[in-house]
Design goal:
This protein has 81 residues and is an all-beta fold. The protein is 0% helix and 43% strand.
């Protein structure tokens, strides 16, 4: 029988960096900590909805084979106007 486990995604305090897009062409950033990974297993992580404001995230997803039990990823986003 397969051992199905939920993937835990943690958004640490202060992880969302919002920049004034009028003075900077830089995208906004959100860091994600993923814990309780099974080493050797392949995972795909994506953000479906960041909040109620329409945004475009990139990359759209990360796929990786876990080497450790935790991983930190950074997604970038821009507001859709």
């Amino acid at each position: 029988m397969a051992n199905n486990r939920d993937l835990k995604v943690v958004f640490p305090d202060g992880n969302v960096v919002s920049l004034n897009n009028e003075t900077c062409s830089c995208p906004n950033k959100v860091d994600v900590n993923i814990v309780d990974l099974l080493p050797g297993k392949k995972y795909t992580v994506f953000i479906k909805n960041l909040n109620n404001t329409p945004v475009r995230t990139f990359p759209e997803s990360y796929s990786f084979v876990a080497k450790d039990t935790s991983k930190k990823l950074s997604f970038y986003y821009q507001f859709i106007r």
